[in-house]
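Lab notebook, bench 4. The sequencing result for the construct came back, and we need a structural model before the next group meeting so we can plan mutations. Quick request posted to the team channel:

Model the 3D structure of this chain.
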Amino acid sequence: MAEVKPTPATDCHKMRLWKHLYLLPLSVFLGFIVTFFTTYTIAVQLDHVKPDFPYISDGGACPPESCIFGQMLNMTAVLLGLTVYVRYSLVEDYYSCGHMRARWERWLNVAGAVCGMSGAVGISIVGNFQVTNALGMHLLGAMLAFFLGVFYCWIQVPITYRTRPDMTRPWLTWVRLLIAVLCSVLFISGWVCAAATPAEFSHRLTNSIKACNASEIPDSEWGMPSHGWEYHVCSTASEWAVGLLFSVFLLTFVYEFRLVTVEKPKLLRVASVLHQRRWVGIECLEPPPPLLARRSRRVPPTVAPVSTGAHRHAYSTVNQAEGGVS
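Done. Here's the predicted structure in token form:
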């Protein structure tokens, strides 16, 4: 068989696609895991926190681990936002291909995108507003991240159920339902145990974190139920479990993302010379959208093909200026 040489049109088509989108949810999963355990290890080694289940953000409250905590959470939040957007677009594309849906399914998908994006913002707030510096903003970010994260899990369960078996598999529905139930139970137990922790114990623990000195609470008192230690550990363990389960939930998106490609954004170069304005199409681009085409109304747009290859047309619209035509 004769060798087929790639044409400029095929090269152009290859350049327009972003493949391996399954790396997005995978990178979010790894980002959370690496951030949580790296900052925890550094904080324990420097004696900034007790090794027995501190809050996740307590491990990133003091420098130098706070710098790592904030930077890595910012990057992970951006990747999470991209993952949420791709998931939303994937579901929209599924229904645009002829699959019937009710109106509530469309709004459910939109609600999922809003919750996911807001949760990503909350994660960034948690990383940038440490508990020792801005407690109010930190708690606001934590509520956005955990509450909306749990809500996002519940939203994805019926979406997963309705898009089977073409886009997903039945077993994924049960896996995501189980994770959503566990996250809900642990989220409630975490806040209840945090509220039940004695105020004196919480105050001393907060002071030790602000001082970056875990030895302010003696080992003889740490671990004593009479001081409220069991409620504190119940709350922190619940928070760790919710964070890890949410990471696993996002990891399940790898199944749907593995066969998805995204087309790169289309660019349009605008060349303006004196009184004339010319829309010059770049190779591999489609015609200007109607919004741009309506800007030149005096002369109708003309299309001039420059080659017979696919996607290789140049589009130009010339406006007649006062005193002459360019």
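DSSP finds ten helices and six strands in the chain.
Will bring this to the meeting.
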